[in-house]
Every structure is written in C-alpha cells, then in structure tokens.
Design goal:
The chain is mostly helical. It has a single domain, classed as Winged helix-like DNA-binding domain superfamily/Winged helix DNA-binding domain (Arc Repressor Mutant, subunit A), CATH 1.10.10. 72% of the residues lie in helices and 11% in strands. The protein has 5 helices and 3 strands; from the N terminus they run ααβααββα. A 3-stranded antiparallel β-sheet has the order 1-3-2. Strand 2 and strand 3 form a beta hairpin. The chain starts with a helix and ends with a helix.
Length: 117
C-alpha cells in the first residue's frame, strides 16, 4: 500500500509539471506572436527608430527606463528619451513618473502576462 501511495504522488507531481509546461509554452508562443506584431508595427510607424535591438529591449522586461535604452542601444540619453517618447505617442508604451524617474511599461506584454496568471 505504501508503494501505491508513492506512485500516486509521483503521477500527481508529474501531471502538475506537465500542466505547467503546457501553460508556459502557450504563454511563450503568445509572447512571440506579440513580439512579431509589435516588430512589424514599429517598423511601419516609426521606421527611423526601428531596430531589432530596440524591440529586444522592449521585450526583455515588462518595464524599461531611459537608461536601459541608452545603454542597450549605445545612444545618448536624449536619443533614448526621444525613442521612448515616440513609442509612447504611438501607443506601444505607457509611462509613469516614479520619484525623479519615468518608467515605461510595454502595456501589451504586461496585459498578455497578466491575463495568463
């Protein structure tokens, strides 16, 4: 009887791992789809600032700051700030002032992850 309980427990744990893996894969696929859509939209709407490196930075974390763009793209603070402002004007980002700093949220990525949790 002890062996049966251990086997049941192992099966229960493995099913939990499987369900988590399936859900995680689904989320990754949705994020990849969204990344592709935003990539195309930014390329069309903001071709002067578009780069794969910029898109990668926007999807590295849900939130970004001017300094992240500045360092990630090796551009001036003014250029990084201009990029983020342009992205916000086009609706790709939403900003919020926290203390002295402005934080930018990739709203579509945030909504995607929030809806999966």
């Amino acid at each position: 009887m002890g062996i049966l309980k251990i086997e049941d427990w192992i099966i229960y744990i493995l099913k939990g791992i499987e369900e988590t893996a399936v859900e995680s894969l689904r989320l990754v696929r949705r994020i990849n789809t969204e990344l592709g859509l935003i990539n195309t939209e930014i390329k069309e709407k903001l071709p002067k600032i578009y780069s794969k490196a910029l898109i990668d930075l926007l999807f590295y974390e849900i939130y970004t700051k001017t300094v992240y763009i500045e360092k990630g793209l090796k551009v001036t603070r003014k250029t990084a700030s201009s990029y983020l402002s342009s992205l916000e004007k086009e609706g790709f980002l939403v900003s919020e002032k926290i203390g002295k700093e402005r934080i930018f949220q990739n709203k579509r990525l945030y909504d995607l992850v929030k809806n999966e949790v």
